[in-house]
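Hello,

Following up on my earlier ticket. Below are the two sequence lines again, exactly as submitted.
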Amino acid sequence: MWIGGMGFRRNKSNGVATDVNLEQKLDFITEGLKASVFYSFNSSNEYMKEYPLDYLFGYYLNPADSTWSRYTNWQVLDNDTPQPKLVTTRSENLQSAGRSVYYKGQLDYARSFGRHNVTGVGVFSRRQYRGISSFPSYEENWVARGTYNYNEKYLFEASVAYTGSEKFAPGLRFGTFPSFAVGWVGSEENFWKDKMAWFNYFKTRFSWGMVGSDAGIARWLYISEYSSGSESQGFGYPMTWYPSIQEGTIPVTNATWETAVKANLGFEMGFFQNQVTLNVDLYDEHRNDILQTRRSVPSWVGVTSISGNSGETKAHGIETELGYNHSFSRDFTIQLRGIMSVNESRVVSYDEPDAKPQNISLEGKPVGVAQRMGGYTPASAIQDGGFYQSFDELFMWPLASGPKPIVGDFKYIDYNGDGFVNDLDRIVPRNPYVPAFTWGANLAAIYKNLTMRIDFYGIGSTTYAMRQGGMFYLYPFTQNKDNAMTAQANHWTPDNRDAEWPAVHSMATDQYNYLGNEFSIVDGRYTRLKNVALSYRLESSRLHKVGIRQMDLTLTGTNLATWTPFKLGGDPEGFNSGVDFGAYPMMKRFTFEVRMTF
Amino acid sequence: MKRITIILISLALIFQGCEEYLDKVQDSTGMDEEQVFTDYNNFRKFEDRMYKDMHNYLADYDYGMIAAMCDEGHTESAQWETMGVVQSGDWIRAYSTAQALQFSTIWNAWKSIRIANICLKNLPMLEGNATPQQMNQLEGQALFMRAWYYYEFLIRQGGMPYLTEPLSGSDNYAFPRLSFHETALKIAEDCDAAAALLPEEWDMGNIGRPTKGAAMAVKASALLFDASPSNNTSGNTEYWTAAAEAAWDLIEYAQSSGQYRLIPSGGTDQVTYKDPAGIQTITYPSGFDSIFMYTPYNDEIIWELYAAVNSGSQYSTFTIASLAEGGIIQGYSPSQNIVDLFETSNGLAIQDDPEYDPQDPYVDRDPRFYHSILFNRERWTSFTDLYLELYNGGRDRASGDLKHFSYTGYLARKFWGKNVDLNSNTSAPFTHTIYFRYADILLMYAEAANEIGGPDYTLPGATMSAVQAVNKVRERVEMPGINSRYLASKDVFRQRIKNERAVELYLEGKRFFDLSRWGDAHKMEHRQLYGVDLIENAGRPTGYNISRTALPVVTLTFEQKHYKWPIPLSDALMFKEFKQNPGW
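Thanks for your patience. The regenerated structure is below:
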């Protein structure tokens, strides 16, 4: 076990928060009307001063004999140097600062006319925010919302927002974002109550709205700027070097709000006095005008990059929740709840050139694929077609660049048939990183004073690319680490041609198999028994005498079991950075809790 | 009541000026469009950046690539995988290798075309802030550089979409490529417009900027490429006429204005070499090397990369270790193929001259041979008493692990200043990377005129026939005129013109494109580069048995598809309208 010490830091922060709120009832104009004005000013600063050690040591506990030894930075044993001291001469630095000013004016209206209930809100607000050294950013919002319901049975709501951002060019700064929702509580209808009393609650609701975002957009994209160039050109005798001016980034004069249109249809149902409940939600979302760097910019435009509102994505899914709650007797109750959701999202338009081959085009692929391009955990890989079984095959199959293969290495599939294996042959597997299907279940049983709760959750099939080709898991011999798993004994040899693992190499990186391929894509689906809790409530006269009204004893087990097809270790929930690449593993935990009320 | 008033007033104050609240911009550190284009100096600074994409085909970091891509000579490739990629014909991959500058640097010139287009678009903004002469100069330079870069694309990749306006973020970029002929005509058009605006010569502070003559030269060359067999598949004589007229216009202009002329020889130079009999001397007319070196500018150069004049980088392209500090890539080796093209001093090809002795081949040759190539046992004219040992097994000949020496038994001398080497402590003199010079224009005219009507054809309105133009070039180095046996027909004379171009314009970045436009580049004789075997033999006049190497030093790959360079994959795959060249 290693421990290192580096010193300590002292953070000081101070802040001011002021809120002023003025409210005035305007019932004399019309009943239910109210006006208010709100102003807030917030400012905060954080300073940090560091006190590092004047030299660093690492302390190592030898597990064999439980002795501690001390090593310098360069892993040289050094038990003799005196204890390092703290350096106290560093100065205090401003780490972060922020100041925001916010004010709004609001009109509220709420009134009931018999069974008709009406409310309305109108808000105008402005906000100004500044960070430690940035130019202040400004935002302006106009919002209006009205709701109406009749006897809590027919519901209607509509709102519109008119938001302005200073990032865009004049004339394009404001976006209008309307939305509305309708609902009907069917079970409140008289005919329903008469005919279908067993179906005690039924509500259906539909909402549609448009939302805007300027979050991903850089400021002032519409302004073009020229700067002095570093290059100069020589003319004249004697040679004079003429300096140059160059164009900055190409302005995007028509950048504007990214919009998302969402629609949601929901059904809430209860049966048998809510002993059985069922909720179903269907949603659909389209995002348009996503600002991105245009990807089909050819050389003859003469610039390195241009942005435009050309991205489009869509997503849709269903979520259902089923519940069962029944008391069999006064003492025994069972509660069950299951949640299930199915989702899908994909990129509709990413400004890819038309002629780009289907397998590497990002359009039509799930949203996460674009973000992971070229990263350590990409969402696409080259397919492998088994192992090289003979020397002849080494020359027959198209090769990738890099180290040459040996017999027993992977054969890669030249997907586009151009004779080379390279990035153009990558394909995207199903559901990369985001599963299509997730679910959860909660079970609870209560018998007299004993309660048991069990929670499960899980995800359906999804694929993960192991980080950097799974360097440490799949190719164990590298950097003198020589740490193979027993499963890797089933590797290719001439006697074991149908093996699971390719031929063993001495260096992870210097082998043909290292190219990011299908082998390093694993199925990450899992089911996890998240929680089991058993609790008992003690209520006895003896306790009352001591003054304890009630005592609860609970035994909880967390992360008790995980079922996943991936057997090489690592937590399936931590796959986002590739099989626990440096992540702290998930722990199984048992807790015993005593709670007393006096 | 008072409270209401306060609230209403505060609400009212807040509501003023919706958009102005958001109309705040940080002061920028740079200049905006106004500042750049309404001031003459800033405008010129912006425009001058378009000169950056001119390619220096002699730069030491280009390693003589264009010369090694044809049969002029060999650049060692074992230490430098870029050359190997190019020699093997994988020119698409060449775009992504680090040092294939002929590919990547030139394709990047679209940036400069954009700069030229922005300048032409914004020129009216300068009205009133600059003199008409200044505005003409700016316009002429922009038009010329646009034509120049399109010319560079034309001779390599072929026809391109001819952009005359800068593109913006919301444009559609799917342009179809124009045909070779259409692009050549557009280049000619731009050159004509530029020639009307550019000055005949610049003042001392601006030497090196394109002149009227440069615009006329680019037009002549573009039309000549258009007329050449590779691109003019139907053999349309009108194209040749257009090329001849354009070349003649420039010749006439040069003669009447006195602006350009062939640098005369003016004296004699000597080379000495060792043979079994002792030290021998060859005397030949001097002056040819002064075209390329020693003076900062001269009357023969029409258009060159002036910025490279002082850099002397050309000098290190052709070095070998014993002559100068060098890295591992140097050791450019002229091929036996090109050596055989130099005529004897009688004006006959070596195979036609009975006086030529294959065992004593280096005497009595065309003076340009002595200016351009170093042969075995020649003394390098520097302070070191160094006689080159280019024979098999010699100190300066590549063998085994020794990579930076001659592979063929010859070294290049063109672009080496006299007396410059490692030990002489002199730096390289002014050295010119020339794109067009007057001799080239005369040969262009001769080639076009010959194609129209044979060696004695004179273009209507011209005062020179094809053969007379060639003889002018030969006169300068005191070579006799073309021998009458070569004037029998158009085809025979055409061979001599090709030969003349090979020896006159050797190593000037021309031969590769010439072979390509003549349709000769795929022929075996131009793809296999031979060296010379020099085996010690005291009985021979030179002391060595001279014979062509049995096997070629390198065989270049040149198939039908290589007549047009490929477009880099990322651009070729982008739009259906912009097609890749056939075969790629």
